[in-house]
């Protein structure tokens, strides 16, 4: 004899209602996991207990991605089939969905901060750990990328500064060489000037000169001095 149809109605006994909720919740989560594995489906399950406690399951490591996908499909469906503005029930349902999503996001945020995790199961803690590890991995990759870019820019600046230093050093060396050449030429001119023979008029054997001899010597000397360039004349001429 087959089992008769059981009428579904609210269980009045509080203890029996809580026990039934715990059993059915476990079975529901198990079925959601089975359908996601067997059929390769994306499943997101959200259940609130009579006391307002949240229970959820997600086939993806991040339930927000499934909820965002649901929002996109819902938005497209609303664009194709806009609801009746006079329907108050649709707006009430939308408000309830947004409120539920906000609560999920707030609870997940607390979990990411390490808060309110005492009631999480082992699997939920493992999923939370995987999400945090994945987030840390992305953060480290981004940090390393920025550090490599910064090091590359510093190396380019160092190379540019080194080239400028080498250029300045080259200019200083060229100026020093030009200064040394100028000093060498000046010294050579002084040596040439000092080595030039100077005409001396000797005195007579008896130490006296006649006026005619002195005048002749003066004339010869003046002619010789005129022929010498001014820059080669001894000082005092």
UniProtKB/TrEMBL annotation:
Residues 88-178 form the K-box domain. One of its GO terms (cellular component) is nucleus. Residues 122-171 form a coiled coil. Gene3D superfamilies: Transcription factor, MADS-box. It is found in: Nucleus. Residues 1-61 form the MADS-box domain. PROSITE patterns: K_BOX, MADS_BOX_1, MADS_BOX_2. Pfam families: K-box, SRF-TF. Keywords: Coiled coil, DNA-binding, Nucleus, Transcription, Transcription regulation. GO terms for molecular function: DNA-binding transcription factor activity; protein dimerization activity; RNA polymerase II transcription regulatory region sequence-specific DNA binding. GO terms for biological process: positive regulation of transcription by RNA polymerase II. Its main location: nucleus. Signal peptide: none annotated. This is FRUITFUL-like protein 4. It comes from Fagopyrum esculentum. The gene is FUL_4.
